[in-house]
Amino acid sequence: MNTLNITKQIIKKYNIKANKRYGQNFLIDDNILQNITEVAEITSKDLVIEIGPGLGNLTEYILNKAAYALLIEIDSKMIDVLTDRLKEYSNYTLLNEDILKVNINQVVNKIEQQQNIKFEKVKVVANLPYYITTPIIFKILEDENIISDITVMVQKEVALRMVAKNNSKDYGILTLMVEYFCDANIKLEVSPNCFIPPPNVTSSVILLKKNKKYKVNNEKLLFELIHKAFAQRRKKMINSLEANKFNNMNKKQVEDLFLKCNIDFNTRAEQLDIKQYIDIVNNI
Ligand code: SAH
Q1: How many domains does the chain have?
Q2: CA distance 36 to 204
Q3: CA 65 to ligand 1 centroid distance, Å
Q4: Angle at CA 146, nearest 5°, toward 145 and 151?
Q5: Does the model's pTM come out above 0.85?
């Protein structure tokens, strides 16, 4: 049976009402589900983390390919559905938690100990809840270094921000963080009618492969610089940095730093590329 019919049956059986607050849009298109697992290149040596498995539509595809899956779902109503639907599988751990509160590195280490396996790669594969896409991505990039590849469905606009070039309106904090940590490629565009209920936006599947290409003396300071540069993106960057007390520097100190890095005093945050941001930090 196809995923659309299974979804309709489950919705009826459990009297499911998609919860807007949790960003619930269930993916029902088998071609897209298949494509997502192909983009992620899931192998039988991988541990896959699925954020928000929902009714389990993507989960079944993942479990058929991966060595093991860690499923993290906030909605307790989904937990019964998943436990029932996945009863033929034993290669997963299901947590009823908020992804933003889980220490993934720790949980994965525990699973490796319990299963007595060292997974070749730990990958995130998910149709993300759109209301918290950015915090989830930042968490995976900054805190969870065990994860190597991230294949996620996000709002098309967010995918475009991840791969934006400087001097464009999409360019910002998310772009720079993604550029610093990963190689990013948009892989698929997905129309609203591939979901129940359909979201109000077009979606994209993006593949982020962790690859730190740049040397920076102080990572924390780089992240502070990026955030404070864009805190007032219409202002000149020097003024935004001063107003937000970047590294506790006064205007004269920031100007001296810009001189050292050969950056014009009138520059705005969106004009600089990641190398220039790193250059600023490395000159402090
Ligand atoms: N993967 C499923 C569902 C996607 S909808 C599919 O493709 O059909 C997004 C899912 O994320 C929902 O199941 C929602 O309950 C869950 N979710 C929302 N916020 C969450 C959070 N903070 N932590 C974990 N899961 C969350």
Answers
A1: 2
A2: 11
A3: 21
A4: 90
A5: yes
Residue 59 CA to ligand 1 center (angstroms) comes to: 12
Question: Any residues with Cβ below 6 Å from ligand 1, and which?
Answer: 22-27, 51-55, 57-58, 72-75, 78, 98-100, 127, 129, 132
Domain assignment of residue 147, given as a range = 3-210
User: Are residues 226 and 180 located together in one domain of the fold?
Assistant: no
201 and 275 together in one domain: no
What is the number of other CB atoms lying within 10 angstroms of the CB of residue 138? 17
Q: Is 209 helix (H, G, I), strand (E, B) or coil?
A: strand
The per-residue pLDDT for 282 is 98
Q: What is the pLDDT of residue 130?
A: 95
Q: Are residues 91 and 199 in the same domain?
A: yes
- Judge if 159 and 249 occupy the same domain: no
Compute the distance from residue 22 Cα to the ligand 1 centre, in Å: 6
Mind listing the pLDDT tens digit for each residue in 198-230? 999 999 999 999 999 999 999 999 999 999 999
